[in-house]
What does this fold into?
Amino acid sequence: MDSGDPQMRAGTEMAAAHAAFASGDLLAARAGWKRAASLVGSVLPVALPLAARSALWGGEGAAARDDLAELDGSGFHGAAIEADRTTVRAGIAALEGRDTDALPLYRDALRAWRDLGLAWDEALCGLDMALLLDPANPEVHAAAETSREIFERLEAAPFIARLDEAFGRSADAATAPST
It folds into this structure.
């Protein structure tokens, strides 16, 4: 359906971005969420944190910072949006190798997601940790296992596969010969 209605177009962009994200096409996912946010301001507080997550998973810290800055400048606030901000800040710190900054931020974000009863967001946050930090770290491992339980309950196979990849990366690093 081709519609000139910006809300319809934004909804289509959001759906396509979610599909791209689930399939691992992080560039297409981020682009779709950015387009949706540009079409209808009301989707901005949902779309920008997802765009930032796509950037983080793709190793694009500068893009994630840009998405966070746009969210910060949007004027949107609320408990879930603040939890998103904390999650993105943690991811940026992790991507920059600042694990001692990232872990407390992730703790705060996980607590916020649990307090809000938003299991999907909690699971994604734990997956962020496994992808961006060392999954062999006991705290990261515990968060990732909680994520796995949530993903299994929701039958979210692509995200379970991502967790498995993160754990595989950790196992490969542990068994790799030192140089």
Remarks:
- Residues 173-179 have pLDDT under 50 and may be disordered.
